């Protein structure tokens, strides 16, 4: 059986993971339209604004796509951190050493040819998108914006000489019977009573303005985080602009302090059950299925929360999560998923513990020094 590596075949790369894992796995594809535009160099600001470069590679056995990987260089990140690091992302394949090795080797060679000294992943192009490789919790269905891969992906990486690093955990919070008041201390209560804090929902009528303020809060609050590179307005809108059609104004908030953007908490309904049902492709029945899902859905996911640095340790983070948990309960949501928190992020882990979050998945980055570096 012949094995071929192709570059730039977006349709085959999209199909590869579906072929590799099958319909009975917990894998949820991205929407095809999102995947297609993400890897369209004429549309993605990662390319058009000159922040980085990538190659999308797919493995074909006797013509059938059975694996994929993206190799990328975030030039803006390397300039900021003084590194020569490349990344792999979207690494999905059948449980076959020949296929895994061929994909990893192709990504490594592409990066080495461009002067990179190390490869790390998964980074699905940037640290602001899905990251990590699952290492535990394989039986738990992912929420929107969470990674999922079968055990053999981490195993193939270890066999190929990659080392697990930067451990992370995703969480699930049962809202039924939850006690969000456990998040409240003196600081949080003071914030909730302070008229200088103004709470604004993210609704369609002011969507772009609120989203831009949320970006500014993200960039300021995350400025000191490892690997973070602040997204530009175009990058942020490219990634988050479609939220306008699914946003639930009851559960996402931008907070202003004395008229300036201060904190943001972005939560959305979980679309994964719907996306899995339609296989990532929007057909004629998709609008009906979307409305049906919206009426029956009781799952939401917390994409991120951030507070500007001048207000760190003032209690705003806990106050935002408290208000969001109450709003979720009142809106009929029963479960909240939380995207990854790194082991080194003690304050966020303590906050997750206070709200009764239970570990859902364990993830790591996998890294390897490139030959000749």
Automatic annotation (TrEMBL):
Recorded coiled-coil stretches: none
InterPro entries: Acyl_CoA_acyltransferase (IPR016181), BcerS-like (IPR039968)
Gene3D superfamilies (alphabetical): 3.40.630.30
Name this polypeptide is given: N-acetyltransferase domain-containing protein
Organism encoding this protein: Bradyrhizobium ivorense
């Amino acid at each position: 059986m012949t094995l071929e590596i192709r570059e730039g075949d977006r349709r085959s790369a999209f199909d590869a993971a579906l072929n590799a894992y099958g319909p009975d796995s917990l894998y949820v594809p991205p929407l095809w339209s999102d995947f297609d535009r993400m890897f369209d160099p004429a549309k993605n600001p990662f390319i058009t604004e000159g922040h980085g470069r990538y190659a999308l590679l797919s493995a074909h056995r006797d013509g059938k796509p059975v694996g994929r990987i993206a190799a990328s260089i975030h030039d803006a990140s390397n300039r900021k951190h003084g590194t020569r690091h490349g990344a792999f992302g979207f690494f999905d394949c059948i449980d076959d050493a020949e296929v895994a090795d061929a994909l990893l080797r192709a990504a490594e060679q592409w990066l080495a040819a461009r002067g990179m000294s190390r490869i790390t992943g998964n980074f699905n192009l940037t640290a602001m998108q899905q990251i990590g490789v699952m290492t535990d919790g394989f039986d738990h269905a992912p929420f929107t914006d969470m990674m999922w891969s079968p055990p053999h992906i981490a195993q193939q990486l270890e066999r190929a000489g990659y080392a697990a690093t930067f451990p992370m955990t995703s969480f699930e919070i049962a809202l039924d019977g939850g006690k969000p008041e456990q998040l409240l201390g003196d600081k949080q209560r003071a914030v909730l009573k302070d008229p200088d804090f103004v709470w604004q929902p993210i609704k369609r009528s002011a969507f772009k303005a609120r989203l831009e303020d949320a970006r500014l809060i993200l960039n300021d609050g995350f400025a000191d985080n490892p690997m973070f590179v602040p997204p530009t307005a175009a990058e942020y809108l490219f990634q988050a602009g479609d939220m306008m059609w699914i946003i639930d104004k009851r559960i996402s908030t931008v907070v202003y302090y004395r008229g300036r953007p201060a904190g943001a908490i972005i939560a959305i309904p979980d679309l994964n059950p719907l996306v899995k049902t339609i296989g990532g492709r929007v057909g004629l029945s998709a609008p009906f299925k979307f409305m049906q899902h919206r009426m029956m859905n009781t799952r939401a996911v917390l994409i991120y929360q951030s507070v500007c640095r001048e207000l760190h340790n003032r209690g705003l983070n806990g106050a935002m999560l408290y208000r969001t948990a109450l709003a979720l309960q009142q809106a009929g949501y029963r479960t909240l998923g939380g995207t990854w928190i790194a082991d080194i992020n003690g304050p966020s882990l303590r906050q997750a513990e206070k709200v009764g979050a239970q570990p859902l998945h364990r993830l790591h980055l996998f890294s390897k020094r490139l030959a000749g570096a």
